[in-house]
Each structure stands twice: as structure tokens, then as C-alpha cells.
Amino acid sequence: MSIPARRSCAIKATVGFEELGEATGAPPKSLIRMFGPRGNPQAKNLFSVIGYLQKRAGLSLHVAG
Hints:
Elements: H1 3-14, H2 16-24, H3 28-34, H4 43-57
Helix pairs in contact: 2-3
């Protein structure tokens, strides 16, 4: 399974594109395309999704430099 397919499966299995769209303000169809095989999300959209998933899961991701 490709990485984009894994991302879509993970979203479908956890929150779903409808809920994620409501939480981030992005239309569900745009999110599906964004995380699809040819998707190329803008940083703003990607961080919005990651932020929501972190809050929902009670996690905090940090980048080490």
C-alpha cells in the first residue's frame, strides 16, 4: 500500500473526511484529493489537519533539530 493510500485509510479509520472538513474548514472532497496519490497539500492545510488530529488524539508532536 502506498503512503498516500495509508494516509487516506488512517483518516477514514479515525475521524473521517466529513468531520475533518468541519474541524479544519476545508471541504471533504478537497481533503480527499489533498491526501490522495497525487495530493500536494499546502503547509497551511497540512498543519491544520495535523493540529486537529493531535488534539483529538491527545498527542503533541515536536520537531527535533
